[in-house]
Amino acid sequence: MLQAGIVGLPNVGKSTLFNALTCSAKAEAANYPFCTIEPNKGIVMVPDERLEILDKFVKSKKIVPAAVEFVDIAGLVKGASKGEGLGNKFLANIREVNAIIHIVRCFEDENVVHVAGIVDPIGDIEVINLELALADLASVEKRKDRILKNVKAREKDALIEDPALDKLIKLLNDGKPFSLDLFTEEEKPFVKALNLMSTKPVIYAANVAESELSNGNNPMVQKVREYAESHNAEIVVISAQLEAELVELEPEQAKEYLAELGVQDSGIERMIKTVYKLLKLRTFITAGEIEVKAWTIEEGTKAPQAAGVIHTDFEKGFIRAEVTSYKDFVECESYAVAREKGLTRLEGKEYVVQDGDIVHFRFAV
After folding, report:
1. Do strands 34-38 and 41-45 pair parallel, antiparallel, or not at all (unpaired)?
2. 206: β partners
3. Distance from CA of residue 200 to its chain's centroid?
4. Does the model's pTM come out above 0.90?
5. pLDDT band per the 50, 70, 90 thresholds, residue 35
6. DSSP strands (E only) in the chain
7. Which range has the top average pLDDT, 22-26, 177-181, 313-317?
8. How far apart are CA 46 and CA 41, in angstroms?
9. 278 close to 234: Cβ distance less than 8 angstroms
10. Are 57 and 292 contacting, i.e. CB atoms less than 8 angstroms apart?
11. How far apart are CA 66 and CA 209, in angstroms?
């Protein structure tokens, strides 16, 4: 399952947003339910209106959207990498996530005290980035010590990894996120194996007052936007307080409320869509009498590997993929009509699965 780690300083709205994800009983009955699996983890279903539309035609027993797991990195404060606060307790969790959602306070409120005494979104970002970099630095230095004997023995892998570790140490001392593109193709596997937080794709969630959500461009948000652009990151403007209010409403009421504010999607939905964009993810669909289900794959995934997402046996025994595009299926309203019109086709091992493809895999065990 796709994982996104939520980080941020105290009093930036992180807890309010995470509580909106995990603490609503009503949300479990909504179209895209949230459910809590641990105190610091929560699951949200990926909004995809295509599934409900397909269900009208295939009349399945259930709809199963793709899901994103949110991991809350609690108590992350200055000095967390050295044991301050509770942040270091959860730093191990963030190493396993696919992307980081960095909540940044972009609102003034004299009733909500900022941990540093002043609202400074870029300063907040740099504090968190430095703590993540310092924690990564400790891991890299340990790894460098561990392979020292192998380097002295002139082992091939160690001779590739060692200069990559030196490069990492230099980058991490700068205390800023960086891209894997700075490393050679030989070095990348060693860097990826470290699961460094500083190399994770980042979405900056600029948390604004509800009244500022529709224009989403106050001076603080603009600073975060400029920072994100200069660091190859994404930005989503949200109102954590609004998200907390939305989970108390029925789905239709929530949509009407957002419309009144001049906003189409909730901040949570926009974050999920941005995670998909950032990680270059795509969705294919299986649709039948039992269920309509969304499956997440990376851009460029070929048919056998997509089949393997469902079950490893599907990939091992892959024969063909029967593919109908979502648009064609909806126009035809059934598999039978799509086949009659030649819009359903058989694809082989080299076919790259596209977003929205409705696929039935043929395989032999």
Report:
1. antiparallel
2. 104, 237
3. 10
4. no
5. low
6. 2-7, 34-38, 41-45, 62-64, 67-72, 99-105, 202-207, 234-238, 281-287, 291-298, 318-325, 345-347, 357-363
7. 313-317
8. 16
9. yes
10. no
11. 30
**Higher per-residue confidence, 98 vs 303:** 303
H or E, element range at 307: helix 303-310
3-state secondary structure of 95: coil
Query: Does residue 228 contact residue 204 with C-beta atoms inside 8 Å?
Result: yes
Structure tokens at 154: 């002139």
- Give the 3-state DSSP-derived string for 108-164, with helices as H, strands as E and coil as C: CCCCCCCCCCCCCHHHHHHHHHHHHHHHHHHHHHHHHHHCHHHHHCCCHHHHHHHHH
Q: In this structure, what token pair is assigned to residue 275?
A: 């995670």
35, β-bridge pairs = 43
Across 26-30, 40-44, 136-140, the highest mean pLDDT is recorded for 136-140
The model's pLDDT over 82-99, given as tens digits with 9 standing for 90+, comes to 555 444 555 777 788 889
Q: Which two tokens stand for residue 139?
A: 């891991």
